[in-house]
From TrEMBL:
GO terms classed as biological process: terpenoid biosynthetic process
EC number(s) recorded for this UniProt protein: 2.5.1.10
Annotated GO MF terms: (2E,6E)-farnesyl diphosphate synthase activity; metal ion binding
Organism from which the protein derives: Peribacillus deserti
Name under which the protein is recorded: Farnesyl diphosphate synthase
Catalytic activity, as annotated: isopentenyl diphosphate + (2E)-geranyl diphosphate = (2E,6E)-farnesyl diphosphate + diphosphate
Family annotation (Gene3D superfamilies): Farnesyl Diphosphate Synthase
Amino acid sequence: MIYSLKAGGKRIRPLLIFAVLDAFGRDPKIGLKPAAAIEMIHTYSLIHDDLPSMDNDDLRRGKPTNHKVFGEAAAILAGDALLTYAFELLAALDPEKASAETKLLLVKELAVSAGAEGMVGGQTADIEAEGKVLNLTELEYIHRNKTGKLLTCSVMMGALLADSDSETLELLRDFSRHIGLAFQIQDDILDIIGMQDKIGKPVGSDVGNQKNTYPALLTLDGAKEKLSEHIQLAKQSLAQTSLNIEMLLQLTDLIAVRDH
Ligand code: GRG
């Protein structure tokens, strides 16, 4: 569990919780345990995604994958335990940081986002799509769930901890949906650019088995345009709130220009 948690990673999901709390003028430290919880769920998903029965990857975050170091059985169990521990952390939140009602809302948000109607559902759709060529709607369904739901969950957990009103909550949900898709589009763009750097010349956007990606469906320029559309829409949603959105705007730009 510790090996994979400490293997690095951008910590985007925890950062989102802290930035939302900052936007409400609340102490980001209130979000420390929920931030650890969501990073545990994310890390479990990466450990399981790398397993031989899924992507069968040897490297993650620049280090040997969990099952390569500890064996498949230990990797499955490390993922299971991280998933369970996340909910233990939320349930044990200090009553001064979250009321019993807020804790229940946090648990529900995380469970729904990570489960069959969220990340696991997206991963299942992704596996079922193997060997098929998807249209944009089908591709977005996968990404909205597989990657997007945990990003939305981070934003929602920050807002719930800050006792947000329902109108602001919905604006933040819109914001998070746009940055979720932007995050995935940038990931696809970085894959293409990485390949071009490796072979030293431009590659077609559907090289290898990378057919179901934004550049493959929209071309590289089309994907970049879509990315910028989602970034603009995310910022518009933020601008409609009465929050101090400076840090959230910075994170939004970071998602659009990140290089890994
Ligand atoms: C196995 C239940 C289950 C789910 C796996 C998220 C996921 C679902 C699989 C990861 C595979 C993948 C590359 C998905 C695309 C989304 C993405 C870029 C995930 C990696 O998240 P980052 O970039 O990772 O935040 P770091 O390492 O920075 O934390």
